[in-house]
Amino acid sequence: LIDVYEDFNLYVLKVFFPTLEMANLFTPPKEFRIQRELCGVLDSKNIILYGFNNLEIDIEKCFKIIEKNQNFTLDFPSSILAFDGYRIFLFYLFRKLKLYWNLALENRQREVFCEFFSYARKIYIILMSTEEIFDEELNKNLALRFEDLVKQSYCILANNELDENLLLFLGSEDLQNLLSDFDFFIKEDSFYKSEQEKYFFKQMIAMQLRKRLVLFKKNLLKNFEIETFEENFLGLSVFLEYFHNLYNLKILSKLYNKYFICDLEKKTLLKLTKKKEKLGKLIHKASKKLKIYKGY
Predict the structure, then answer these.
(1) Is the pLDDT of residue 208 over 70?
(2) Cα–Cα dist 175/110, whole Å
(3) Which residue among 13, 26, 35, 159 has its CA within the 20 to 30 Å range from the CA of 102?
(4) Do residues 118 and 205 both lie within one domain?
């Protein structure tokens, strides 16, 4: 049996055997140029979704590129694995955080510190979704420390303490230790927990998007509570910001551009609730489109 995917210029040969022993003895004809054998992880459906190349990512090279410059949009290949994808993504956010940390130390401008706060919050949100990718205890420890960093940063902004208190905070030993520990955590390649680190990054992100879409819709239409709504909105907006183009799904981009590029002020969020029926339908369609990526 040969599966033909004309749009992808891809041909998949499937050979069926009555016994495992006969399958192990089979040798493909010389006329066939075998590019990759299928297994449980990579069946013909997954080839379409994630590609079929043996992609080896030079993580160190990626880190060096990001260290030199963060003014570009991340573009992840379909076949990158979850462990590598999350490390690259978190390192990108981390270098942004370090950039605004240094700038805030230099000029103490509110706008700059707001960016520092924003990236600290993004890292915290992502760490809350990676406990099954990295070592659970290490991941939890860093997530709690970033949560504390976010809370302290918020208090400084709320109280407008952009003077010596800000310098003491940014130059504190606790913060410098956190930055150092997180840098080591991301660069070290042995911090993983389970088999899920071997799944595709695209697959794991789809899972997070669907989970957050469902929770957001439930809170929006059934159990509305403003604080939960804010929390769900923020978590979903981070994933949509960086991954609405990952799947070439127009509905994800429409959802992000129309509803999730806005500030977190209560009056702005409450405006969304007035469009909840239309927003709910859009979320349902987006979640349904992402369902094809389930299966681990």
Answers:
(1) yes
(2) 19
(3) 159
(4) no
State the pLDDT at residue 43: 56
For the four alpha carbons of 53, 16, 2 and 34, in that order, the dihedral sign comes to positive
Exposed, middle or buried: residue 38 (CB in 10 Å: 0-12, 13-18, 19+)? middle
Query: Does 93 share its domain with 176?
Result: yes
Token couple for 219: 């809170």
Q: Tell me: the pLDDT tens digits for 215-265?
A: 999 988 888 888 888 899 999 999 999 999 998 889 999 999 988 887 666
Query: Which 3 state secondary structure label does DSSP give 194?
Result: coil
Backbone angles phi, psi at 10, to 5 degrees: -130, 135
Give the angle 92-93-99 at the CA atoms, nearest 5°: 95
Examine the domain organization and report whether 238 and 160 are in the same domain.
Answer: no
Question: Mean pLDDT of all residues in the chain?
Answer: 86
Position 146 in a domain = yes
Counted domains in the chain: 3
- Give which of 207, 278, 264, 193 is closest to 230, Cα–Cα: 264
Domain extent at residue 239: 200-293
Rounded CA separation 135/191 (Å): 5
pTM of the model: 0.82
